């Protein structure tokens, strides 16, 4: 699997000529262009749902001189146009001629989107009424045609025309269909326009009306189902409140819109409230539910000096924090931006479906034409019956289920991952993670905690009887040093410290000082050996600790060793379980470390890793990744996203661990694990396999239903409205199947 970046939604023309059924919402299509402030030339296009619509808009706009770039966000149905003012105006005209209705996206305001939501609800309600009226007229036309076929033909004709006009979908479909035919493209609108026109020509007026009414209703149902997947991402946007209490210059507190709060301001959050911004706690303590950012359901205790993130929930206790990022640059905002960008990328299966649909639709159109013409000429079929069968073929040929299944499944997979604190930067990585055969794991901060801890303490020589005294002496010396090993010793030993005189650091050796008139040294193995204080028994004891990858420090007087203290970077609690999960999936874990070989091997044994490599420089890790790709195949790299950035870039997929709030980690990796859970790598692989399976289930299901109806249409008694029902059913089945991914990640 060659490493590749996900396709960006900027530039290029995609090959899909099909048109999603869920694209044309009758209640949104007529949304007026509302004048007002424009946010960065960004426009909302209510009927732009999938790659087919994006492709149509690109073809209409890209030839215009002065257009520098088009930035699509299908999840939000928005398009940002980069270009000169005149070119943007021409682009909007071209988009309208292509059958879409762009509306300016208002600049952010302190009032939120309440007004827009109200207008949307009103438009949705009127859309339902129009569709209900269209369906009632179509049913009435069917009823009159069935019970009194000869007495009132013009009444049936009038009802059919009214059903299409009132539903609006028919007129909209005709406009888009004619535009597609003029440009030599065959999409669903072109197919439906030809089918309904043909039905009118051969006198099947009630069926034409019923097809259009059912088609509009099917679109509405599918759109609502698709929105469920999109809303899973949109829910992230709603996590952070729109305002926060901010301390003023005179010490009072005032509620201020979040987008107006600057870095360095002091904000306050009460129990039960969500944080609006990232920051550092300055006053108070509480437990914070960080699940929206890290996926961890267990609240984390926060005290002054600890980081907090926008969108998280203050469980109890009022806290104040200093803002460290503006609203548009919080950790949550970066997560949302990354997920939105990921939605714009094309997964391998989605690219395949788009290419297939570009060939499939013209082929079906040619087949329908053959069914209409050849049987009457060579098999003696009646012309009207043969033409009707061809029209049924055009209706069932709609590639909606096929095209819409892939983006819904991908978005659902991305949303399911985001809920678990797994940020996947594109459909390519979501789908390709299933191909991984090996994972290279950095030791420090990935398999281990990344912070040294005191793991063993033992008095030595004649000091056993005075363990409490020896413990206090060791802590007194360690507390005076800022070396990581000394800090680990001081934090790991209980009890108080005593005064230390003439404290001296011994670079590369340890520290020394005088306590109660006696000179003591907290020394490493080398210094003890140089002073002649070591013997065979002590050497054997130290060898045992060093074989386990521990850093040994000794408390010694001028005459003898008083205690042995062992410090180690401890294994993460879930490391061994995470490694076993990878192995169960058939993925080989390999540990890469810059530490010495003995330490690397000791940690690997404890974690259950058979292949561990120590003493590696950054270049050595790159070479190791290349070797693993030749040996195993597709290889991932998991590290902290900063020191391991070259190796992350070299691997097929890079996993950044514990990256909450870390800009560099988010930029360096393809998959960002927002907490320190190593087991999330196995979850990503399982989700990838499940997503890939759902994608091909949907493709197989959509094609199988169409194949059955093709046979019924040509050799059976299938009708046009039955074809619409079948197509609607197939679309709903694949959408529902894709939405199953939102239920979680199964093992």
Can you describe this structure?
β2 and β3 form a beta hairpin. Among the domains are: 87 residues, Calcium-transporting ATPase, cytoplasmic transduction domain A (Distorted Sandwich); 123 residues, 3-Layer(aba) Sandwich (Calcium-transporting ATPase, cytoplasmic domain N). The strands form five sheets. Strands 14-26-25-24-15-22-23 form a seven-stranded mixed beta sheet, sandwiched between helices. The longest helix has 36 residues. By secondary structure, the protein is α+β, with helices and mostly antiparallel strands. It is 50% helix and 18% strand. The radius of gyration is 34 Å and the shape is elongated.
The gist of it:
Helix content is 50%, strand content 18%. It is built from 26 helices and 26 strands.
Task: Describe the sheet with the most strands.
Answer: 7 strands, mixed
Number of DSSP E strands: 26
Structural class: alpha+beta
CATH superfamily of one domain: Calcium-transporting ATPase, cytoplasmic domain N
Side by side, the strands of the main sheet go 14-26-25-24-15-22-23
Q: Helical region count?
A: 26
State the CATH topology of one domain: Calcium-transporting ATPase, cytoplasmic domain N
Shape by Cα distribution: elongated
Distance between the termini: 24 Å
User: Would you identify the regions where 5 or more consecutive residues have pLDDT less than 50?
Assistant: 2-39, 107-123
Estimate the strand proportion: 15-25%
Identify the CATH class of one domain.
Alpha Beta
Helix content: 40-55%
Q: Architecture of one domain, according to CATH?
A: 3-Layer(aba) Sandwich
Mean pLDDT: 77
User: Mind telling me the C-alpha Rg?
Assistant: 34 Å
């Amino acid at each position: 699997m060659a490493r590749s970046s996900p396709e960006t939604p900027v530039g290029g023309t995609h090959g899909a000529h099909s048109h999603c059924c869920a694209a044309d919402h009758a209640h949104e299509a007529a949304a007026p262009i509302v004048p007002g402030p424009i946010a960065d030339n960004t426009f909302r296009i209510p009927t732009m749902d999938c790659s087919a619509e994006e492709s149509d808009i690109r073809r209409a706009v890209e030839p215009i001189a002065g257009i520098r770039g088009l930035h699509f966000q299908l999840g939000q149905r928005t398009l940002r146009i980069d270009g000169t003012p005149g070119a943007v105006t021409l682009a909007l005209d071209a988009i309208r001629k292509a059958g879409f209705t762009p509306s300016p996206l208002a600049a952010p305001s302190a009032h939120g989107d309440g007004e827009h939501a109200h207008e949307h609800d009103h438009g949705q309600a009127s859309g339902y009424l129009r569709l209900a009226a269209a369906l009632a007229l179509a049913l009435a036309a069917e009823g009159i045609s069935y019970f009194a076929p000869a007495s009132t033909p013009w009444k049936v004709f009038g009802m059919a025309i009214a059903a299409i006009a009132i539903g609006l979908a028919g007129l909209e479909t005709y406009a888009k269909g004619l535009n597609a035919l003029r440009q030599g493209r065959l999409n669903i609108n072109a197919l439906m326009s030809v089918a309904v026109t043909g039905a009118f020509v051969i006198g099947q007026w009630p069926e034409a009306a019923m097809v259009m009414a059912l088609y509009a209703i099917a679109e509405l149902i599918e759109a609502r189902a698709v929105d469920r997947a999109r809303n899973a991402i949109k829910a992230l946007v709603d996590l952070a409140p729109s305002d926060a209490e901010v301390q003023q210059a005179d010490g009072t507190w005032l509620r201020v819109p979040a987008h107006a709060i600057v870095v360095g301001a002091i904000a306050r959050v009460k129990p039960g409230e969500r944080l609006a911004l990232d920051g550092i706690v300055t006053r108070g303590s509480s437990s914070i539910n960080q699940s929206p950012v890290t996926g961890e359901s267990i609240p984390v205790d926060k005290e002054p000096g600890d980081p907090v993130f926008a969108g998280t929930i203050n469980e109890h206790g009022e806290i104040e924090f200093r803002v460290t990022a503006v609203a548009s640059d919080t950790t949550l905002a970066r997560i949302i931006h990354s997920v939105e960008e990921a939605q714009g990328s094309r997964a391998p299966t989605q690219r395949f479906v788009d290419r297939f649909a570009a060939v499939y639709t013209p082929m079906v159109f040619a087949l329908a034409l053959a069914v209409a013409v050849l049987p009457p000429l060579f098999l003696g079929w009646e012309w009207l019956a043969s033409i009707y069968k061809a029209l049924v073929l055009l209706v069932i040929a709609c590639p909606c289920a096929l095209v819409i299944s892939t983006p819904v499944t991908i978005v659902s997979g991305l949303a399911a991952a985001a809920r678990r604190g797994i940020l996947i930067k594109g459909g390519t990585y979501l789908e390709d993670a299933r191909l991984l055969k090996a994972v290279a794991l950095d030791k420090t901060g990935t398999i281990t905690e990344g912070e040294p801890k005191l793991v063993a303490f033992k008095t030595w020589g004649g000091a056993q009887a005075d363990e409490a005294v020896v413990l206090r002496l060791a802590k007194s010396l360690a507390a005076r040093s800022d070396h990581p090993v000394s800090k680990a010793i001081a934090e790991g030993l209980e009890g108080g410290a005593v005064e230390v005189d003439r404290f001296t650091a011994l670079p590369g050796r340890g520290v020394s000082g005088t306590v109660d008139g006696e000179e003591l040294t907290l020394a490493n193995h080398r210094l003890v050996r140089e002073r002649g204080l070591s013997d065979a028994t002590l050497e054997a004891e130290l060898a045992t600790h060093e074989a386990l990858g521990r850093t040994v420090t000794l408390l010694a007087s001028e005459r003898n060793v008083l205690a042995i203290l062992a410090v180690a970077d401890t294994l993460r609690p879930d490391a061994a379980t995470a490694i076993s999960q990878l192995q169960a999936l058939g993925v080989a874990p390999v540990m890469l470390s810059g530490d010495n070989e003995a330490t690397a091997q000791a940690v690997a044994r404890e974690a259950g890793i058979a292949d561990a490599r120590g003493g590696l420089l950054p270049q050595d890790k790159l070479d190791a990744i290349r070797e693993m790709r030749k040996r195993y195949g597709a290889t991932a790299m998991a590290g902290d996203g900063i020191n391991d950035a070259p190796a992350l870039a070299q691997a097929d997929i890079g996993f950044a661990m514990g990256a909450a709030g870390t800009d560099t980690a988010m930029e360096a990796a393809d998959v960002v694990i927002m907490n320190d859970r190593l087991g999330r790598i196995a979850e990503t692989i399982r989700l990838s396999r499940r997503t890939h399976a759902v994608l091909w289930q949907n493709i197989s299901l959509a094609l199988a239903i169409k194949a059955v109806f093709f046979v019924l249409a040509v050799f059976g008694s299938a009708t046009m409205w039955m074809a619409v029902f079948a197509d609607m059913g197939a679309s709903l089945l694949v959408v529902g199947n894709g939405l199953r991914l939102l239920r979680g990640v199964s093992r």
